[in-house]
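Complex record, two chains
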Amino acid sequence: MSDRPALRLEGLELSGGWKVEKLLERPPTATGGHFSVSYRVVNIDGREGFLKALDFSKAFQTQDPARTLEAMTKAYNFERDLLNKCRKQKLSKIVIPIADGNVEVPGEVLIGKVMYLIFEFADGDIRKFYNLSINLDLAWALRSLHNTAVALKQLHSRGIAHQDLKPSNVLFFKRQAEFKVSDLGKASDKEVPCENDEFQVPGDMGYAPFELLYGYTVTNEFYRRYGVDLYHLGSLIFFYFADISATQAIKAKLAGYSGPTLTSHNFISDLPYIRKAFFEAIQELEQNIRAKAGDLTNEIVTMVKELCEPDPEKRGHPLDRNINQYNLERYISKLDLLTNKAEYMLKK
Amino acid sequence: MNVKGDYKIRQIIPRWYPFEHAFLMGEIQTNEKPAVSIWTPASYRHKEQEWLFYRQLPWALDFVGTALVSNDLSNTAAVDASKFILNNSEKVSGLAKSVAEKFLQFPEPKADLNLSPSNRRSVIISSLKKHVREYPYNAIAWADMAFYYAVLCQNEKANLCISIALNLAPENRFILRSAARFYLHTKNPEKALFFLRKSELTKRDPWLLASEISISEAFNLRTRNVKIAKNILLTLDATPMDLAELYGTMGTLEMTHGGNKKGKKLFKSALIDPNENTLAQAEWVSQNIGLTIERTSKVNAAFEADSRRFFYDEKYKEALEEALKWLRFQPFCSHPVEQATYIAGTCLNDFKEAVRIVKEESRCLLNENFLINNNYIFSLASLDRIQEAEQQLATINFGSLTERDQGVYQATKGLLEFRKGNIEPGRLLYEDAIKRFQKLKEERCVALATFYLAREEQRVGHNVKEMTDAVIRLAKKIGIKELLQDVAKDQDKKIII
């Protein structure tokens, strides 16, 4: 029997008619909450759900349990409040909890209560379905990009920056043929300051734009965080057509001529090299895209260039640069059009 | 025949090359070990666990990619994952494959330092044009395009390209040094210094500081960075390669102000791991302060330094070979052409080769640079190709020349008169040239003009003993070994007899 209560929820009945079925060990979607445990749950009305239980016991294995516990609780509350905000605002493309609460684990003395969130059960994240770039289903990929862009737009319009968009956080719901963005654990809310605001790289560093890796910020205004989301959206295009993120592709190109390190640790000084590497990566990516997307290639490439532009000041659509730099509207329209074209091409 | 090559004071003026050469010359990267920077350790550990659990390509790719971004190059699980990717490379994109390759080994820099033949340069320019059309923010491509335009002597276009590069990247070492060298090429040292001084980076980057001080010194313009440079040499934790130019620059500065002992000490530090420019400077300095140069490491593209070394050692054939490599390495630059034509003509008596060098390797510099033009005309005249020489001489505007160059012009015109059979006007022109040089105290030019006047007089059967003795005296005095070759040969003959 495990000494971690969060690992002993199987078979327990929860409020709202939910029953914990099976522990999901290292599911493909679990890159977000590192102190959480996931289960498959079923409701008496037949609905399936995904339960994310906060594993407080892990805090006691750290050097400063009190502080860790405080941080975990803060993070949990922040994510829960953010998700509730999304639920209230009816954000259709965000994976929001169907229920939340806590459950008493029998036989536990120290921390017997386990807090949890229940989400609708997805068929998996996009990594599970895309099966590498050589087997890419173009229309499916474009639809996922469109849905993701809509999700980001929904968040941005409510003052929330996701900051950790990556393949494992885009979930596919097969029955509805729909994609939703999950895991707001690294998000920032314009109205509610949180710990994530303090981190140089709040999300996954393998996907982080270079300005974050260098600790460079052109402004402290909140909207700069939307720029990170735009980069991540473009990075998903890299993922679909090249199997890796934009950051990883650029770094591989940089390593080709910078050797181990560049001349300085200053973003502005190194930006010309990053841009050169970015251009080379784009050139190679374009070939991959052309093999899959044919006539749609140029539009997709233009989009990646604008979304993943290494200079945050030049990122985004050129026509939006002076008013609402990180506006996603144009990309949503473009991706919708491209998806329809790709679906039409498929039917022909 | 003349050369400015033995500048009164050589400075470490920044070199200018395309990006891939700059990389090879160590100007882009440092030799420091990359710092491992894992910003999100929990997520990184999770990636490693996922890879170990699934052992499939998507997880391997994400883990290796993130390990590369974090510079965690010794991670054994990531090494394992990279090998797994490479074993299944047919299933992943080329970009993904390159992530695994780069993770396992950073590639050795490779580039041919002899630049492409001139007919390929326009092909490179059109390819770069395409690049900037597709992605105009690529400052490196703009700087490279400026370089190739400058090589083709299309300085206006080069100017436009370098301005765009500077506008895009005013705080980058490669762009700033390229721009500075371009503005010197177009005889605008103030503009070169303006951009160097405007940059925040110059105050902490040893390469840029060296450029700023060297250019200021070369053009007698005041610099306020000497103190900063001294401080940087004392405090900056940088590799010997990164500090080499600054040590060399400060050594030259000390030496020119009489501090030979300090200069020597600074050059010793400069020579721990020098680049070719610093080594060439040391070769030049070695003749002045008796510096002994021991090459401990292989220096890339040390063409100028090697040419100088062979020249001082009177190995003129080898000196010419290296000067030609130097010319192909810095094809927009007039110094290597002056040097090569001078060695071919004066040292090797091979005027055909001097003509070939100008015609085939540096045609566009011909009308840009008086000394190259002069050496070309001189070589043509020495080959008795009088008509061509006269046509070329007509392109020179005498009034626009410096006093020294006017003297050179007169001497070359004198040679032409001799070869046309007009002995007296030829002699008068030579004598006029010699007087001008004497007035300017240009002893080297006096010796050369006298040497060639003697050659022409001898050709028409006159006694030149007095003149030859004067040349030998002067050449010995100021160390023009190439003019003493015949004396040495005569002595050798006497010994054999």
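Note: The first strand of chain B starts at residue 29 and ends at 30.
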